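User: I'll paste a sequence; please echo it back and then give the predicted structure.

Assistant: Echoing your sequence first, then the prediction.
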Amino acid sequence: MSSDRLVLTPEHVEIRLQPAGLGSRFLAVTIDFLLVTAVSAMLATVFSLLPIALAYPLWATASFLVVWGYHVYFEAAHEGRSPGKRALRLRVVDGRGLPLTVGQCFVRNVVRVLDSAPAFYGLGALASLLDPHRRRLGDMAADTLVVAEGRSDDPDPAAVLSPEYNSLRTPRVLRLVRRRLSLEEREFLAALVRRAPELDETARFDLMEEAGQWYRERLELRDLPLSGEQIVRGLTAVLVPPLTRRNRRR
């Protein structure tokens, strides 16, 4: 059974992501583990120059911050790539294809303690083998996915630009729009499209999906393979020209 996952990108195009294999993930986490160990050893050498009563508490605190902050920092600040993942060309992404949030980075790395039990990611490896998308427990808890860079299928430009994906100007849809959408709803759609660039990507995705699902049911668009934003923008493109012409006549 394929482990590929279909997601919508921030541009709301459906793509296929191929989760990274266990071998490359194991090598990546080994590199990160060695780097964290080296940093801790270097800190121990530096703090050994201080009195023992001061050196040990400082070293313990610094090592704790390094161990717990290493992955969170690199995944949040470097587009989901720690040095180990970068070396193996891996990346952590949101389960919907969106960029990671700091909260997701924190959750998946807190659960790393459970994944690493009973010895060096034994439970995490077992979870990855059983999960269809090769996720460890931390990925499941944070809704994240580790993918191999450059291996996702590019969308077909002809399909993305076809009327099926980018236009709702069909007689059936136009008839339903005229009958079922009020002036207030038309103004809402236009305002939503205008405000979209100002929204956080995750908030924009969620809002567009919710609005799109509402109009998908309202206008009987269940058979169209469109994202929420494509529905909202498609309806707005249909509705705004008539409103503009009406305002001009006034």
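DSSP finds 13 helices and four strands in the chain. The two ends are 61 Å apart (CA to CA).
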